């Protein structure tokens, strides 16, 4: 998959490169994602962000316009992403939910998401879509949410 990772810190570069193993066409950018830096996402299927990148409806619309179909956040939380707008635009969202929060662990989770999507599979527990599916229902039960 073609992906661009925004807000990359120096200590993250090596971990991402090793986890990727030259499988995906991965561009690493130190700039945060915003309307002034969105041009780096042109021609990419996936954008990888940090929790410091704020993805509101306007930015998500622009990402869709330039061809982005999927977003991975290198965080557990998705508070910085308008998940409902992403769903309306058909953009899939994944996070990095596993306990290993080291740069290596986050990089491996990020590339795992790309590998699964590249194989046409669901990202499982990393799925942050708002649509109803077995994964979403299982995550709600696991997190104690009931309706």
TrEMBL record:
Keyword field: NAD
Name of the protein this chain belongs to: Lactate dehydrogenase
Domain D-isomer specific 2-hydroxyacid dehydrogenase catalytic: 8-100
Keyword NAD: yes
Molecular-function GO terms, alphabetical: D-lactate dehydrogenase (NAD+) activity; NAD binding
Classification via Gene3D superfamilies: NAD(P)-binding Rossmann-like Domain
Organism: Sphingobacterium phlebotomi
Highest taxon in the source lineage: Bacteria
